[in-house]
TrEMBL record:
Matches recorded under PROSITE patterns: HYPA
Name of the coding gene: hypA
Domain of life: Bacteria
Pfam families (alphabetical): HypA
Chain's role: Involved in the maturation of [NiFe] hydrogenases. Required for nickel insertion into the metal center of the hydrogenase.
A GO molecular function held by the record: metallochaperone activity
UniProt name for this protein: Hydrogenase maturation factor HypA
Residues reported to bind Zn(2+): C73, C76, C89, C92
Family: Belongs to the HypA/HybF family.
BP GO terms, sorted: protein maturation
Record key words, sorted: Metal-binding, Nickel, Zinc
Keyword Metal-binding recorded: yes
Residues involved in Ni(2+) binding: H2
PANTHER family assigned to the protein according to its UniProt record, in alphabetical order: HYDROGENASE MATURATION FACTOR HYPA
């Protein structure tokens, strides 16, 4: 379950932002999570609550925004949707597709007091 260490990193980022921004309470943390990133949203929610105890994010809501997979097909020369890593282009069926979206784990927004 690598989601636990990912949540620890997220909490660390939030604490760093709190030091820079001078806030002491977080209401909401918004994460962008890529659909192809092999990270389970439900596990992130569970781990966020567990890791957040006793930290600045304790009691904060975690909102996860799923980012769909996308890639650039070198044969078609266009952006195509991807449902799996190293998947085939849905238009031409070839596998020369470079993933351009869907692997993200990004702290997008904080609602703070």
């Amino acid at each position: 379950m690598h989601e636990m260490s990912l949540c620890e990193s997220v909490v660390g980022l939030v604490e760093e932002e709190a030091r820079k921004g001078g806030f002491s309470k977080v209401r909401t943390v918004v994460l962008e999570l890529g659909a192809l990133g092999h990270v389970e949203p439900e596990a992130m929610l569970f781990c966020f609550e567990a890791v957040g105890r006793g930290t600045i994010v304790e009691g904060a809501r975690l909102d996860i925004v799923r980012v769909p997979g996308a890639g650039w097909c070198l044969d078609c020369g266009k952006t195509v949707p991807l449902t799996e890593r190293f998947g085939a282009c849905p238009d031409c069926g070839r596998h020369r597709v470079q993933m351009t979206a869907g692997d993200e784990l990004r702290l997008k927004e904080l609602e703070v007091e």
